[in-house]
Amino acid sequence: MIYKKRHYLSILTYCLIGILSCNQKQTKKNDSIDRKAVVTRHNVVNESIDSLSSLTVGNGEFAFTVDVTGLQTFPLLYEKGVALGTQSEWAWDSFKNEKNFRFEETLKSYDFNNEGRDAKYSVQWKEPQRNKEATDWFRENAHRLQLGNIGFELYKKNGQRAEAKDLTHIHQELNLWTGEIHSSFQVEGEPVEVYTAGHQEQDQLAVKVQSPLIKTGRLAIYIRYPYPTAEFLDEGTFWERPELHQTKIEVSDTHFANISHQLQGTRYETSLAFTEGKLNKGKEDHYFVFQPGRNTDLLEFSAAFSQKKMEGKLSLYDETLASSTKAWADFWNRGAAIDFAGSKDPRAKELERRVVLSQYLTKVQCAGHYPPQETGLTFNSWFGKPHTEMHWWHAVHFALWGRVDLMEKSLGYYANTVEKARAIAKRQGYEGARWQKMSDNEGNESPSSVAAFLIWQQPHFIYLAELAYRDKEDPKVIDKYKDLVFETADFMASFPTYDKVKDRYNLGKGVIPAQEVFKAAETFNPTYEVAYWDWALRIAQQWRKRAGMEPNEKWDEVIQKLAALPVQGGVYLATESATDSYTNPKWRTDHPAVLGALGMVPESPKLDKNVMKSTLDTVWKTWSWADTWGWDFPMTAMNAARLGLPEKALDALFMDIQTNTYLRNGHNYQDGRLRIYLPGNGGVLAAVAMMAGGWDGSEGELPGFPKDGSWQVKAEGFKKMP
């Protein structure tokens, strides 16, 4: 009888637990984030002309940036702001190598550790002149192209071309949920309404325009082709040297046209589709004008860029918008989301804005098949070439936000360029593959007296591959990436120098750390790189185990004997070679990379968190924060979060420093040279994902946010950071 009572009580207990469990699930469901509300409350609105507030449509592989007219009507007005770029990841060009420069002419031999090594690095020569010119040529070529300017020709009643000052009643809004830009303005009291969207399956933009100016012949659309500058920056407004390239209308009828553009190193096509009208050659070279028919006040216009002539019919606006709307809804509805509504901390709204806009910008600018350049697909920096040490900042957040496929798209770059990475390692006397720091899509290395000696890009592939595996722990991911993981680790194990006296392996000499102020010939054992090296080699060993293989003995030897993280006075030094890391003003500038040893990099067996806490305090007080970069603040936040200092993590994200500025359109502003800097946006997303979703070893929910009630946070879908 007692047993039966207990049995019935047990059944009742299980039922109550089940009911409570169901209620909890229902509460969680009802309490889920209204994603559309979170996203659209940060739609970007412009009501005046501001060269730093241009807006972009695109798909991760192609981007088109517009001014307040919804097209690129005033490129010169915006060229020193967020320039009105048109770029695709495939669009590269090279000038003719008229002097027959050979890449070998950029190489210089070094033997940093007196080992008798003839290690050849591609550097920037100052003399002799031939080597200097070779250096310059290989830095400038290949260069990423600006594909063309597409804007309005607007005319006043007196026949004069309307200028920016003639636009009134400006209102422009980017609908983040659909990717559509709605722009409206007036010219001499006549309204113009423009809708702009980017196709998500091809390199195409489309506009729908309604205005009485169409009927009166006072509105047309121009297409203009710039020439590449082959300079550090290319804002797409270099219209000189018209004799060096050719443009030609290949086809033109009342609804379709095609323009070919031939440069010295490439040719591409622009396909146009439109409601009734005619494309004509303009009065200037490389300038074309679409003049719409006058029987309506409504026109649609599409332009697609491609390497070869497009086959089939080009879609107009409604189909392009449908593509954009579907893809953006899919993007926002999958993966992670976060909502700070109800927070008492006044910074919460701004953090949410940065998070939402950074998701939009990185999806538009950085979700292609190659590591993106630091200025994305807007304007060139470093000749349009990506920097692989920045790939962590461009890509990690995609995986942490539950969109690992967007990260994996760019991992194919490593498989496609591994032969060239092997060649770099071989010519320097190392094993495996040494990943290029600054290159084009083909993995061709660019000469650089800094890039040639950087090593912190090397473990990135292991980190990214590990994120891909952790997403679902799918053995197929091991099969897909293991060979590249192992070749990466082979270089990492062969690179350190064995110190017989101290029976240890040193990183360097011959290293420029992430904090680039140090000289390669003098630097060894930078704290961040040593910690990252240690973690990545241990993960590579785990990959061997997952693949059913025995541990690599050489890797183990390096792991066991790798130099300790350099400590002095209870704080970690930037490098073991810089014992004056915090007293010499020169060493307190650039990236405070020492903090990356716990933040970007998971906690290492080598690391003492008490020492790192003292290091954070020292860096916080002594650093020249005005001489930092946009991703330094998220890196500092991640360090503070792992140390159990969530308030300090938020303070880091909101340091009042110019390079921590986020413009109205969401871009991270650095200075007059780098008006946009996407590693900063990726850094914000990575830091917030970590603070919300946690990291290996973190406890409780939302471990990176204060628990004093000042922050009300709803979060869902985040993946733990390693």
Structure description:
By secondary structure, this protein is an alpha+beta fold. The chain is 32% helix and 19% strand. The protein is built from 18 helices and 28 strands. The strands form 9 sheets. A 9-stranded antiparallel sheet has the order 1-10-11-12-13-20-17-16-15. The protein has a 4-stranded antiparallel sheet with strand order 9-14-19-18. It starts with a helix and ends in a 6-residue tail after the last strand. 53% of the residues are buried. Residues 1-30 have low confidence and may be disordered. This is Glycosyl hydrolase family 65. InterPro entries: 6-hairpin_glycosidase_sf, 6hp_glycosidase-like_sf. It comes from Olivibacter jilunii.
Secondary structure: elements and pairs:
Elements (H helix, E strand, L loop, with lengths): L1 H29 L4 H6 L3 E3 L8 E4 L3 E5 L8 H4 L7 E3 L3 E2 L13 E4 L8 E4 L6 H12 L2 E2 L4 E6 L12 E9 L4 E8 L2 E9 L5 E7 L1 H4 L3 E6 L21 E7 L3 E7 L4 E8 L2 E5 L5 E6 L5 E9 L10 H17 L3 E3 L8 H19 L24 H10 L3 H5 L3 H16 L32 H13 L2 H20 L2 E3 L4 E3 L20 H20 L6 H9 L5 E2 L2 E2 L36 H14 L9 H11 L3 H8 L7 E2 L5 E2 L8 H16 L20 E3 L6
Antiparallel strand pairs: 1-10, 2-3, 3-4, 5-8, 6-7, 9-14, 10-11, 11-12, 12-13, 13-20, 14-19, 15-16, 16-17, 17-20, 18-19, 21-28, 22-23, 24-25, 26-27
